[in-house]
Amino acid sequence: MELNRVELALKEIYNGWQLGNEKENNGYSAMFRMGFPDEYIDSDRPLLMYVGQEDLNGDDYKTQEWVRKYQTVQLTENNAMLPREKIRYSPFWEFCRKLDDMGYNCLWNNLDKFLKADHKEHIAKEEAVGFNAPYGEERLSVLQREINLLKPKVIVFAIGPREKYRKSLASAFSIDASLLYAHRPTRKSCVNKISDVLGLKGSIVLWTYHPNYLSRGKLKDGAYEIMQLFLTPKEK
């Protein structure tokens, strides 16, 4: 199956980033590259970019096409497209299904797109900040370019408040990490709107804990209710 026109545009972003980088061939996994389901193109359903912490399976065979199919398997709970892949009932994918059920086309993305080459170690904070930094004449990061291309109505950063991810996110938008600190998710406020902080006034941008933590901390139901308030269209 060939890449669709949206995936080809995303591929240009990823190839452009790698043109001046040797990261993949220098002790790191393959780069996580988003897929884009054909049925999302020209869909009436608004697009929601669901951003996890980092790709945990950066194998070379897990291409954009594989990512697209894997996401479809997880959202439809039918592994006919990838028979060897299990349907995951982890908090991450369960939360994604809930968001999809709210009427959005959920698109899987990750903030940090690399692991160490052996896939057993996460990249360090300094590496993540560097990988997410702006580049090129436009001085935009990979994440900014993805957002500018896809124009999601909603972005959910399910990455938690840890310093590594906070600084990585700040690097991607060329802002001081201290600006994000005041808006980080806490147990008292587990979902926060950060559209203005990131300069993304055209999208509803929410920052919450990773769903694994939401589940362990018994915050899952509360987080979902808050998101419903943010994301359910108001009646006129």
Which features characterize this protein?
Uracil-DNA Glycosylase, subunit E; alpha/beta; 5-stranded mixed beta sheet; 236 residues
Cα-based radius of gyration, to the nearest Å: 17 Å
Q: What shape does the CA trace take?
A: globular
Q: Architecture, according to CATH?
A: 3-Layer(aba) Sandwich
**Which range does the strand content fall in?**
5-15%
How are strands sequenced across the largest beta sheet? 2-1-3-5-4
What is the CATH topology classification name?
Uracil-DNA Glycosylase, subunit E
Number of domains: 1
Question: What portion of residues is helical?
Answer: 25-40%
- Low-confidence stretches are none
Give a brief rundown of this model.
The chain has 236 residues and is α/β, with parallel strands linked by helices. It has helices spanning 5-19, 64-76, 91-101, 125-131, 142-150, 163-172, 177-181, 195-198, 211-216, 220-231, and strands at 47-54, 105-112, 154-158, 191-193, 204-208.
